Each structure stands twice: as structure tokens, then as C-alpha cells.
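Lab notebook, bench 4. Still working through the backlog of constructs that have no structural model yet. Next entry is a single chain of 420 residues. Request: give me the C-alpha cells for it.
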Amino acid sequence: MKLHYYGWLAGVMLLSACGSKESSGSLEPGTVDVVGAIEKPEELKASMLGSKIRFVPLETTDSALLTDSWRAAFVDDKIVIGNAAAISFGGDRGNSAMVFDLNTGKYIRSIGSQGEGPGEYSHPVPYINKEGTLLYFSPGNRMGWETYDIEGRYKGKIMPDVPFDSLTFVAVRDSVILLQLSNREAPSRKKVYREYSLSGNLLDSIVMFPDQGAASKRLVFSGNTSIYTHDTPLRSTIIEFKNEDKSIVWAGDRTWYVGDELHLKEDYCDTIYRLDKSIGDKVSLVFNTGEHRFPVENVNKENIKEDNIFITDVLETPSKVVFALSHGWIGDDGHKEYIGIYDRETKKTSISPTENKITDDLSGFMPFIPNMVTPKGEIVGYLTMEEIEEWLEDNPEVERPAWLNGVKSDDNPVLVIISD
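Model written out:
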């Protein structure tokens, strides 16, 4: 069973759901020294991310079977997983959100189902409020959002008269929902966010990058067009549309909580911003790529060149940042991919080629790649059973760990969880 975790188009949803609840106050703005660290690559170790590591095999049953494309969100000590394709043309039906215990891996229940009827949803991975008490699903009829609690109880639909195609879900906190106004037509970087009560009353607005130009995000082609998917180092997906005349990428936004701060990162941008109503500089973190920088305002105006560096993935906790990058366009032969770790306390940036992954120096097991963050700030990756069996075969001196007892070769993947 070969599994991929896809993050494209779920970026806003997933990262908002995975943001840390723990806060150390306002985060000090920082600079990730990409251009310096990439010249001196070093081994990345699990101990750079935390002091403890545990492995959690996800239970496999007829009701809980992950496909080769899935996404996840977290609620306290539970993980909510949905089988969902990186690209969907509306044909996916019948999937339900599956809830597993994050400590034992035990399958607990399914929540709702895909469909177009009352209470049914179009996508099986929910948005989750900051308090971690309610799950919001995009509805099958494309109006409002269907609401459940983690016990699987249906809580009704919020904002039933709002078409979610025109307003993108960003976050819910203290019974206030933050939505982004769709702006794919205008040749502008401007982003408008609206705060609503859950009953639908407009409360306030936030505007980011009000006077900055950019290419229109509308995808327009003539003639036959091919769609290409490119897997990123941290297991998300980049979508590229190509025909004889041009290449266009889907450029979206991703948001997530770090403590009490809501962060925003545009795809292909080298900067993370605070998404709030404050006046003045909202820069939280800059990835310094030096002369290799590709300006975000040039996306779909010109192609990323072989000497450009752009950030493909980011995971943030209050103390660590895990990121990945591509040197050159990720769809071109000869490009190079890297994974990096930035320590907020020491300000140190460490980078290694993606193929080296992150060494498990805490338990001595196989290398892994992180791609999720829990509400507690734990950093999570996963290993497929195919990967595990192959590594054990190549490393016969390693004793088969006890947590694999009873796990079969075609079972669901094993979560790798790092904590302080």
C-alpha cells in the first residue's frame, strides 16, 4: 500500500486545524538563513525538533482504511483523516471523516458522509475551531458549512445562505468565523478577510497587501491543457497547468495558528505574515534566499528559473519551523529539493537534501519526513508499512520494534510523533 499525504487546496483548512494552542506570547520576527545554510548542508536529527519520539500504528478495519491520497486535521488527542484526492472533479463520493486516537492509533468512529443531502459534505476533512470543539465541513450543496462535534453529533449548518465558492474558510475562534473574499479575477495581491458571527452578521474586515499588483489568479488557456502534479518534500502537492503556449501554477494561500497568532503564507512567497487587524509591519518570518529569490508578484508572469529558490512547505510551532524548498522549478529535471529546520531560540538554520530525510537519533529507527503539527505543537510524520518493511529488510541488524507487533504489511500507516 503506497500512501501519499496531499496538502494542496487543503492548506488553509489543514494548517488552521493543526496550529498550536500553546503560546509563549508574541513571536519575535525572525529570518531563516536559507542562502547560507544551503551552502553547508548538515544532517537533520529528530532531537532538533524535540526530546521524545513515539510511533502510533493506525488501526486498520473495513471502516478505517486509508487510500493512497489522504489529509488530516487534529482535535486534542485525536486525528481526523479523510481520503481525498489531490485534484477532484467532483466525482468523489462515499467517504467519511475517520477519527483515530492519537495515543493508541485505535479507530474510534466515522463522522458524517460525503453527499449532497442534509448534513452531508463535499470534502471529508474538516476545518476545526481554535478551541478544538467543533468541526466544520464544506457542504454538498455548496452553501454554508455543516457542523459536527468530535463525538460525531450533527450540530447543524452555519451561514446557510453563503456560497462557499465566494468566501473561503480561514478560521473560527470565540464564535467568530474568518472568511477570505474570493479575488481570483483581479490582477492584484490584495486580500480581503471578513469576520462574521456564526449567525452570519458581518463584524469586521482585514485587508492585506492593499496596493500591490500581481498576476490574476484566474486560470485561462486556449487549446488542449495538461495537468501535472508535483509532490513536494513534505508530501503536499503542487499543481501545474500546461499547454503549448504557457505554464500556469495554482497559487493559493495557507493559514495556521502558532499560539495565539494567526499566520498567513502565500504559495511561492518567501515571507510569513501575521493575519490580524494591527497597523504596520506584519512580517513574522522571512526565508532569506538571497540572489536566488523569486518574487511572489511574478508568479504566472514569468517562470521559475533553474537558479531560483522557492519555499514549498512550512510547519510552525512556537519554538521550531520545519520547511522545504525547491532549487529550480519542481517540475524540471535537474532541480534539487531540501528540507530545513529553523530554531527560533538559537536562530540557527539547518538544511539537508530531501533524500536524507530526518534521522531518528531518539529511538534509532528509520529516517522519516514530518508533514503535520498537532494542537499541542507536536511534529508529526508517517511511515507506510511498505517503507517500514523495506527498511527493516535493508537493515537486518535492527530489531523489529514492539509497536509493530500484530501490524500487517498492508495495514494503515504508522504515525511518527515528536514532542518536547
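Notes after review: The chain has three helices and 29 strands. The longest helix spans residues 385-394. Flag for follow-up if needed.
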